[in-house]
Design brief:
This protein is α+β, with helices and mostly antiparallel strands and 59 residues long. Helix content is 41%, strand content 20%. It is globular. The termini are close together.
Amino acid sequence: MKFQLACGDVMPGCPTTFSESSRDALMSAVAGHAAQEHGVTEITPEVAEAVSAQVRQVD
């Protein structure tokens, strides 16, 4: 099973996509990207919820 996220679903206009084998790995990759590319260094509960709502599980 894979977990996928398109950053553009959270940050309109961003073309970056993620695909990882676990939700934890996905969220870690997304957090690193958010810090480097978008200047988001604090992941508040609201941000985590918005991101988590966009995660898709695929076989």
